Amino acid sequence: MPVAALIFTAFAGLCVGSFLNVVAWRLPRNESVVRPGSHCPGCDRPLKAYENIPVFSWLVLRGRCRTCKTRISIRYPLIELTTGALYVAIAAYWWEDWRELALGIVLVTALIPITAIDLDVKRIPNAITAPAALLALPIAALTEPSFIPEQLIAGAAATFFFLLPALISRKGMGMGDVKLAGVMGLYLGAAVAPAILIALVSGTLIGVVVILKKGVSSGRKTAVPFGPFLALGAVVSIFAGTPIVDAYVGRF
């Protein structure tokens, strides 16, 4: 991958990450992600352009508003850095595969605010999963139309895999998780299988840790959002999902 393209991708990822912070904060509050512009959550002062430079501004201002000194969460630069890092990793890994590159970039762009929102309010908004689902097929049609049947099968399979548990137990799997799994199938194809496995294993391990820490009775009542685990599985599968599936199929 050319160095210039790498630098551009990193810069684009940081800028997109800055916008995803806005999405993660405003969407659960039913606020517009466009207007008003970025402002301090403490004094409501509109931010100057130089105060809104991804990561850099947070570091220079030491994580506080320039005027009222309200503390700005470290989550903001972390989301920006994570987005930039994932953009670069996907672009470098899939540089010669336009389909994987485009689908991977769009998927992580959706997964990052979904993870933040699910951790905050334990809800996965349709305002993110619906547009992501609608974009998947056109991307494949423009880059590799032969992938569309696999998309549709994987999306349907992932959706129905979680749909029954969600319908049986309303206190367990949420419909947001079901929809997110379906979206992951549309983007990952057959590689959604290891993504789901990783999500289930990691989610179970964290559940065990919570029970050991709080006790069985209290631990079982503790709500742990599953969206971040699905996102983790999806990110791993962007890079390793296809090799895992190929290795598994090749043994039989």
Structure report:
Helix 8 (192-214) crosses helix 10. The longest helix is centred in the first third of the chain and has 24 residues, at 3-26. With 252 residues, the protein is mostly helical. The mean pLDDT is 91. The chain is built from 10 helices and no strands.
Outline the secondary-structure elements.
Layout: H1 3-26, H2 56-60, H3 75-93, H4 98-121, H5 126-143, H6 148-168, H7 175-188, H8 192-214, H9 216-221, H10 227-250
Helix pairs in contact: 1-3, 1-4, 3-4, 4-5, 4-10, 5-7, 6-7, 7-8, 7-10, 8-10
The total strand number stands at 0
Largest sheet: none
| Overall pLDDT score | 91
Radius of gyration, rounded? 19 Å
Oligomer: single chain
Number of distinct helices: 10
How far do the termini sit from each other? 35 Å
| Proportion of residues in helical segments | over 70%
Fraction in beta strands: under 5%
Low-confidence stretches: none
Shape: globular
Order of helices and strands: HHHHHHHHHH
Structural class: mainly alpha
Short note summarizing the structure:
The chain is mostly helical and 252 residues long. Helix content is 71%, strand content 0%.
Search tags:
single chain, mainly alpha
